[in-house]
């Protein structure tokens, strides 16, 4: 059986449909050069020309070809010993030449042969037109990617002899090391993606067919400037989005829009692009209230630990010992507590308790609050034993004996258990966790026969705790073996818990079936198949729900351009109120900001015209519980295709930090404003 980690080793990280789309993505990152009379775009023939044409057309700049020919080793022509560029510039790797014992005469013969081919290609490509004059110009050199960078280095060396004012390199894909190397040699480098590990340029493309001489000639003959340009009359992506955007004050769409979007869906997943934005939480709560009151949704399932969320569930149903929402949320002690212990969730929990009280008074179904996550290894063990102590003391004794394995390994530290078990420093408790789950499941029917509906709810709670222990044990061992594997285990657990919850609620629902709204981060809610992480074998809850429930599921994402956010600077750190940097060029956030709208919904499902601008690959920002603005690009952005990632996106251009119930002094003080220097 092939695991996700194995898939990651062998699957290329495909980002772009083809070279033309890659060019459009690059153009979004080069907007500072648009409409400048001193700019000229040179595409490295042949593969760089389709990319360069899209860049030149978007920047409204002239385009020409720059031909570079590889100098292949005698008898092994695929192995480059150097390169020959337009203008006759030859760049040779002296170490390789010496190592292969290539004589000066052999090198001259290779250069002459490739030189004749270079001249032939230049003549064929330009159709008699003279080469562009780049003296004193800002030249943007474009290729379809860089590997070693030998061809691009030859192009730069040759180009310098023509004395341009500035040289810029722009490529869709390249190793980070190569991009950094060129950054020290020229004026500007734009690498749209830097896959790790980098294996080959073609791995970043779904369609990487060879470009023909005829295609190059045709593109060079197609103007990118002036009145005859192919695309000057087309609307920009921002204009297209603006024309179909639906105003959503404070992020809350009109009821008729929600009705059209949701329809008869059973599961609605509502995301957030940060775990600390007030407007995301507030709008999500408002939409959820509408789903409960108008569409009969019977549960909120959150990216929260099962035991802590179930304490809230008891409170909103008028059960348990908590006297107010603040107490009901006090179980959320694990970092990051502010995710659920905040003013918005507190107010929603109070509202839900009041709503359920009114429902009970009229004999109508109540709405519960549940958790989907699996971090509660030791807490869930404790809850299993508490339940069994009440209903089956002998089974409780067996559970204590099995779960004692974890105490021997790591006391109450789940990560310490995972580390010791993964590296052989302590025992693995996998067998004990499985045995306890099987034991519980074997006796579940007998437990369910006691005390009616309430007992069945508590049985379901305890049984899910046993399942959580089982899945968390696997997760904590896997987290030291690879990020993709542990991520997938977590999202599969969420999907499994969600389906178990649906089945449980369906037992108490007449037609129609139970309906659930999910609260989680965009990175879980969005469909992984529309993002670059899919090529690594990574799954998401949204993808799994779509595959299982098809048109009965809706995925809604949130985004913001700037403002403040509640986040920590490191794992386990205190909550801080941090300034969010303006979104990067080429990001979906930057596109939505460019529409000029303050808060709106855009959906290709509602407005098919939105599909075109939202189907372009763009960067998407994801701020979790940690925000590292100094490494913004690396830490918080990945490539997405929004039209396929979500059924709808709600953009709120300026947002503020979520207020914790216990704000720290650093949160109250906020962050000192900065000038936002560029970060990788």
Automatic annotation (TrEMBL):
UniProt xrefs under CDD domains: Ere-like, PRTases_typeI
InterPro entries: Emycin_Estase, Hydrolase/PRTase-associated, PRTase-like, PRTase_dom
Superkingdom of origin: Bacteria
Phosphoribosyltransferase domain: residues covered: 26-177
A Pfam cross-reference name: Pribosyltran
GO biological process, one term: response to antibiotic
Protein's name in the database: Phosphoribosyltransferase domain-containing protein
